[in-house]
Amino acid sequence: MSERYLEFAAISRSFPGVRALDGVSFGVGEGRVHALLGENGAGKSTLLKVLGGALQPDSGGLRLGGVARRFRSSREAILSGVAVIHQELQLVPQQSVAENVFLGRLPVRSGLVDGSALYAATRAQLEPLGAAIDPRARVASLPIAERQLVEIAKALARDAKVIAFDEPTSSLSRREVEALFGVIRELTRRGRVILYVSHRMEEVRELCDEASVLRDGRLVETFSELAGVETQTLVNRMVGRSIVDVFGYRPRTFGGPILEVERLEGPGLTASASLRVRRGEIVALFGLMGAGRTELLRLVYGAARRRGGRVCVDGIEVSGRSPADALAAGLVLCPEDRRREALLTEASIQENLCLSGRRPFWIDRARETAKAQRGLERLGIRAASLSQAVRSLSGGNQQKVALGRGLGEEPKLLLLDEPTRGVDVGARSEIYAILQDLAATGVGVLLATSDLSEALGIADRVVVLREGRLVGEQSREDATEASLLALALPLDEGLGVAV
Amino acid sequence: MTARRPLERLEGVGMVGVLAVVSILASLFVDNFFSWNNLVLSLGLAVTSVGIVACTMLFCLAAGDFDLSVGSVVALAGVTAATATNATGSSLVGFGTGIAAGGVVGVVNGLVVARLGINALIATLATMQIVRGVGLMVSGGSAVGVSSESFYSLGNSSLLLPTPVWILAGSLTVFGVLLHSTRFGRNALAIGGNAEAARLAGIDVVRTKVVIFTLQGAMAGLAGVVSASQMTSGQPNTAQGLELRVIAACVLGGVSLSGGVGSIRSVIVGVLILGVAQNVMDLLNVPTFYQYVASGAILLAAVILDRVKRAETTS
Q1: pTM to 2 decimals?
Q2: Which ipTM value was assigned to this complex?
């Protein structure tokens, strides 16, 4: 085995009330891609923060090329050749792509920024990523997938020796993922050390040579060769119990229509959209990046202004003027970007679970506590207390809080936008169980997803969006990966793409 | 780590502790500090304007906005009340007119900020100047004296405590209950914490903000009326810089400038710390020049402390 360039040695780090890392030790050799696996809250993010210098361990340390290092700041980590690409991107949205790639190190000629050198160098960094991004474009104008590539180009431009990726593919299309994997493989050929965090097991199998599994801050096991290890084994190590089937689909019977959308038009849609959801039915709205999933949900909910068409819930028309109207009609939206659109991160769990335009004017604290407690138990949110701030929760638990607020509204129809993005296997299977329990009581669910396995695994029916229009639907029995992709892919690349 | 301990201890105690320590030290070492006359009459009356306006500034800050026009509104309300009292012969009508004038300014602020989406800093900076100008126009540039005895009673009567102190206590109670125990208060905090999340949760963000600014205007009007009554005249140049003292008091007590975090306790503590500091310096005959430096230094120390605390808890 090759010499291990990066070594974590008995790293421990505590936060008030939590032991986030507890004596974690493992190593990664040059030219290896090492997967870091674990549920939300297992300590992966904390470990990456220690690696990137954003956090200092209470005890233990890390070694790079045999030399003990103790980073007191992100800057020290960067100067030592470590790049951590976080899920929440560290870009300056108001500046150009090129200025971001060379942030803090702009090429200068006679005291002025050398524009042509800057753009040429940026192009050289972006090219191997297969990204046709204009170096002059402002980052704010780019879709999230391209911003991600800019962040990666930034790490490459620094010529980092150790590169850690924290769920880099959560907002990338399949083609972009392929390009990224190509880049990572090229980096390993050049002797880079790669640490790769992902919840998507297929990706881990495809890309990674070895893996370490964390649970509750402890290292459970390190696999020095991933080939030959069953995926099920990895998942069981992560959750500490066996999950046979993540989705646990249970057939249900459906009632009459609960949501009727007729000829809806508005921003993000290129054709008017009509669809129905029946009582007790879970309908997946499947589409690739930019297909208009989020836009359609927002139009149905009244969060975006519609230009035409009508939406009826339980036979009663919803005005579409504001989310408040939708809520009164029994519609609830759980948005995709929970930090930006759903949560009050500084506020308590209780406040987040009870936040609603439909609260009574006088707040009955005892009743709200009881309501929040029910939400906490129903969703299995793991927290020290109801007064804990939401920002201190792990990603999966934050998502459950966002979901819990929606369920607390007792909706007739639940609109969910990517409900399991960034959520670990254990929490995912819990969320699927909750949705099915809800559907069994007659609630309709419309679930937007770009995850093919999710659409196939949980939905009774799949409606496919492509480039802003509804292009077809398939029942659970008929839908296959190939049939859904054939509908979802733009026509010019519809053939020959494997997933 | 051991280096964190002193700060952690400070955090547990918070600004209430700072206030307690400062007050105890002042009682021990400053003559005349711990007396009914000083605490109730000097200190109590000195903080009424700042305190009354801070009640609603708390809501503005909680919702992620500012209102810089409050100082001007205090002046406008004073001269309007005095003018209306002279014109109608009724102080009650005068007081009502003054408060209403503040409310009107508040509605305008609210509509510009919430409906048109103009940055509150800029919008209220503009209305601050406009309102100051209108106050000067109404008064003709000089103090508007009032001859009616009943006009003075609001600011100068007393029932156990001076009436203005009662008004302050009442305001703190009402807005404390509003913030902590009603949908309106929780919605204000939610809007400041995450406006888009609040909107998607079905909260009418625009209406809530307009109501907040309207209340802010009316409360500044109330403060103006009380202070005009104390001074027995409407002064068009009064309350210059009041808006910054109010915001400083709120932030000092722990209300977040970026919205979403605040409590009435923070306001009470912030107002009292600034008030006690001012009072002690007056008792010690510290020259005004030094007082400015000291007030600024206290505010700076408080926000730095807050910053350090925050960095500790979020890391």
Answers
A1: 0.79
A2: 0.83
